[in-house]
Amino acid sequence: MSLWQKIIKSLIEGIVNSGDKQIFSGNKIDITHIENLQINIEGEHGATKKILTINFNELNKELQELIEKNLPQVLEEGVPVLEEGVRQTGEDYIKTSKQKDFKESIGFFDGKIPKEDLKILKASYYLKHLHNQKKSTRETKEGIVKVHGEKGKSISNLCTAGYFETYIRPLYEAMQETLDFKQEKFLKVYEDIIKNSPFALFVPPNATAPRIQKMILDKIGMMGKYGISTLNIHGIGQPKVKAIRIAIENIEETGGITFKQSMTLEGNVIVVKLTDIKH
Amino acid sequence: MKNTPVITFNKSLKKSILAAFGKVEKNGQVVEKQGGASVPAKDGSSFSIEEFGGITKGSEVYIKSDITSLIDYYEEK
Description:
heterodimer; A: alpha+beta; two-stranded antiparallel ribbon; elongated; B: alpha+beta; two-stranded antiparallel sheet; 30% strand
């Protein structure tokens, strides 16, 4: 019997001997008290998964100390000690990363973009998966931006909006066809896209109509340098939808810039496409 | 991914778990209780209790809870 199994055995015996009826009911472990410390035991061949869940704060001091004292040794035996949310996210990520689209996209960009960017891209595809599943994305996105800064924000925005498939990959494939293609040439263009997103504007949270108007005008001013005349404006949330509409109306009324516009609204996600932009 | 046992804990127990390994939080960073030396995460950076995601063998490798740190850990498993 390994050390961690001995600890579990001691723990169960300790709980039984303490006569704590809240934890045990007859010979079965009552797992309805699911709080705090959870010991997740996987079957050897993955056939059976048993979860022993213990309310740490309801254990007596002796049993609490038993766990605390033995955790370092359990770790030495190769049993990781993870926060439950971390375990769930990690396993969900591994499951998602085995999906065909995910593998195919990461496989394509592996070796073509910097290693750090590939790491961010993997996280971004997972973010996209969460968004498609209508699950909360805030914490994941914040984690990407906190660690990777503006580059993280840019890659995750471009990825979740589909630009890695619809623009960056076709760009690479087109450049690769040229006789004088070099990886460095692609990287130069790629890094420019990541830094400046010349064809896309992602409206930040709480942006007001005047701020959005300025962002659009600044972006249009920059786009001329690239000879790009189409801008996609992305926003999430009803207040942002309204603010984007007001910003565009103001630009039209001010004059000096003309464009055609079309809008897609899916739930609370808006994409306004400005085409044939002329100064 | 091999089926290996894992011990998981609720967020509210982070302080107790770190204490079991002789670590405390000081000035927003996790440090050694004895001596106060900063404890590095797997990527070499310091981390707060909020960022603490878990510990794995090697001898003690501290995992941060942000998504790219998790990806690093789970892809190496």
